[in-house]
Structure formats: structure tokens, C-alpha cells
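Posted in: Structural Biology > Protein-Ligand Complexes

Title: Requesting predicted complex, fe (ii) ion in pocket

I'd be grateful if someone could produce the C-alpha cells for the following input. Sequence and ligand are given below.
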Amino acid sequence: MAQSETTSSANFFLDGNFAPVAEERDALDMEVRGTIPKDLAGNFLRVGPNPVHIFDEAAYHTFDGDGMIHAIEFGDGLAHYRNRFIQTDGFKLEQERGDWIYKGMNSMMDTTPSRVPVGEPRNKNLANTAFAYHNNTLYATHEPSKPTAIRLPDLETIGAVDFEGRLKHPFTAHPKIDQKTGEMMTFGYAFQTPYVRYSVINASGELVHSTPITIEKPVFMHDFAVTEKYTLFLDFPITLDIERLMAGGPALDFEPEHGSRIGVMPRFGTDSDVRWFEVETGSVVHTANAWDEGDEIVLQASRSKTSDIASAGLDAENLQDTQGHLYQWRINLKTGAVDEQLLSEVKCDFTRINDSYACHKTRYVYAAVFNPTRPFTFDGVMKFDNDTETAITFDYGDNRFGGEAVFAPRLGAQAEDDGYLICFVQDERLGQSECLILDAQDIGAGPVATILVPYRVPYGFHAGWVGAA
Ligand SMILES: [Fe+2]
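-- Reply #1 --
Done. Output follows.
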């Protein structure tokens, strides 16, 4: 099946299936191997960078690309593929000009005069990173920015949201939604004090609580965690340093001497309520989940011992040291002791759970399995069982690489893992993009359905699932 051509570039992030696509398309009646389950109803979503106007191709970084959503709408055993640009203000400005306006993170020190029009934001809200679905609204997220509301199922951009002017800080790509209370917890980090701010948005979409969180110096805090009672902040040592950047060094760097600590605060607490627990030094990009267990808090995340893959980028001297493992911290609030445990030897990230159980105890974690030699590349998917402490993996096969797999509950689901794992996979030898649907209770059996997408789906960042109402 013909797909749009990949292009080759000296820049890893513009080469092969990392290269962007130019067209927005729809596809129905796609070729399917196997059978799309009839009890799968809703929208599978995947967002990622898809740059249009690039200031400097050699300096381009994948974190700079304009957000594009690739989605498949499921119902009655049928599938409808769509891909759409996210029409952020910065994207529209560049479309109107027909050329670059924003330079990108690796070109911050470039002396080319700015093209950002007076009165427009100095930084582009890319909306390219992940999704959150709260109060019947789908958001595409980008951690330096405000969340961008997207309409389903047509993927039309509604626009950036500031919760009636109450959101005063950047909004993490990974807010946590407690489906039992309907609350959405979020935070943002910045180069300036307060380095971290945290907010709670209630079930009807009102921002009802906000507080600064004091940490010693700014760090790359991509994710956090929330339990039924507590919110957890990860002050880990990927530091942000403008002076280091001005001196020709990296803006982000692993500084082990900074140490690692987890801050624990009641959900509606303030800065002075935070208790900090020192832990073994390491890096975390993504948490899986956290929950309360008696006097203890359990946190599970993908953790690496040194710099993580996001901050190390392509320059990692030893790629495998930057690739995380599933790891657990058990924090005893009574004794102050923290017990740490490696849960699996499988190198993984893009940790996911059944979102209905977020902030509450979960038995299963799903994660993308790293390729051992090529950065930003995943060979398969893992399901970790906390009860048996074992991991099962499904490998996509030779020259086949996938992205984040998201859990979609079956209609009428009876158990935490009663549903499907869905992800896009690229067969690089055939140049074929596929959407795989795996039975989450038997991932080793391989896909129950493989949809051959007639257009190329580039590698991207996070996935999401919004079930049919
Ligand atoms: Fe992320």
C-alpha cells in the first residue's frame, strides 16, 4: 500500500519515519488483518512533533515540532483514521507568513533577529506532547504552555485554555485525573522563582486551588504523581541553568550532586505542608501511578540511574544508562523510611495504566520497551503485574518500531486489564504504518487486529484514549 515518502536528513529527528508529513487526511475502509473488536468504542489518539517551517534544519530538535494528532475513531468494529495539525497561535502565525517565526530550543543563542511580532507570545505553544481528558474536554499538552482544547472526533482546535484566567503557570504535559473525585491535578516548572507551581481543577473545570512549591534550583520536572490523599513532586537532578547555557553549555544537564528527593503534600496542601524524602539519585521522565497503602505511599515510575533519554538526547555516551527501568519507591509517612526497588530488568518508558484507576492502587503497568541501540525507538510493549512481579513483553518484530501503547477498556469491562492496548507501529522495511490492537489480558498472543494505515504516521510522543460516551 502506497504511503507518503520518507525523506532522508542528516538530522536524526527529520530522517526516515521521524520526518513530518505535510497533508491532513482521512481514511475509511482500511485493510485490516484480524478483526477490530466490536466492544472497542472511542478515539485512539497519538500526538507528536510535525514541523512545518524550520529555522535551522541542522539544529532542529524533536521537542520543537508543531503538534499533529493522528487518531483512529473506533465503533461497531469499524475504524476511521484522521490526522490534523493543532492550530495553535504560533502555528497560525507561521502559516500566515509562510516561513519560520520561532527559532527553536537549540537556536536560543542564535543571533538572528527575532521575527516574533510585537504583542505575540515569545515562545510557541506547540501542543505536541500528550493528552488529558477532563470535564468532557480533550486537551493537547505542552509543558511550557497552556493546554489546548481539541474537539472530538474531528480534531478541530478550539484553542488554549487558562481556566478563566486562574491558570498562572505552565501546565505539565502529564496532569493527573482522579476519576473518583473528577479532579485534575497539574503543575508547571519554570526558570524563574517560584520554580514550581501546582493547581487543582475541580470536576466542573474550575481552578480551585493553587500554590507555589519551593525547590532549591530549577529542574526538568516532566511528570509528577498523585494518590488519593497526596501529591508527589520529583526534585531530581536534571537541572535547568540559563547561565550554563550562556557559557556555551547545555540548558539541561544531569548534576548528581543535586541529589534526588520526593516531596509529599496533601492534595489541597500548600508549600509549607510539603515533606521532602531523600532517595537514591536517578532520573525519572514518566511516572506510572502512585497510591496510598496504610501509612505508606507507593510510587511507580520509569527510572534511570543517570541522565534520562529526554535530557541526554542523542548525545548519550552510553545509551543504555539513560534508558529507564520500572522502579518503585515505598515511602513510610510514619517512620520517614523510603524503600526502593527495581521492579523489572526490561528497559522501558512511556509508562501507562488503565486511566480509570489513576491515583488509586493499580495491579498493572504498561510501557514501551526501548531499542538497545537507537535512541527514541521502541521495539515492543511490556505489561508488568504487581501481584506476580513479572513482566510480559510483545515484540513488534524486525525493523518494526512502535510508540506509546495506551490502554482502552472494553465496553462493559469487568477488570482492571479488561480491554485493549493500542499503538501505532512502523514497519520500516515495508514503509507501512499500522495500528495494532492487542488484548491487554494476553499481549503475548499478538494483535487481535492490525490496521494498515494508508498514510505514513511518523513517530511521535504520547498517546491517549477517550472512550465513547
Ligand atoms: Fe511525557
